[in-house]
Amino acid sequence: MAINFEEALGIRPKALVFREKRGDILAANLANADTPNFKARDVDFKSVLKQSVASGVTMERTQAGHIAPPQQQIFGANVMYRNPSQVSLDGNTVEAHIEQAKYAENAVQYQASLQFIKDGFSGLMTAVRGQ
Structural domain boundaries of the chain? Predict the structure, then answer.
């Protein structure tokens, strides 16, 4: 009997990839904290989860006059601009303390995703050994 890793691990590998891509976005925000007119961006995990679990409905552009979908997406969820509490004089919307907190939170969630995958493989190994 073959082991189906997608069925055994569920959505955990996708969550790990999402956390990695979100970390890249948050790191770019921090790296551009002093760049004039840079707009901080982020993506919502709930919308990604909803897209991943949904029935697979996708946006399609069938006519030249149709509006194209947003350019950057992660698993079907749009990367959105963050609403700052105070924009700097040069138009930059990165708030370093918020970005650092979001980055740290994402790092913890990344580690949790790794642990969930590890636990999934441990369960599979236990099943294979027949223990």
Answer: 11-126
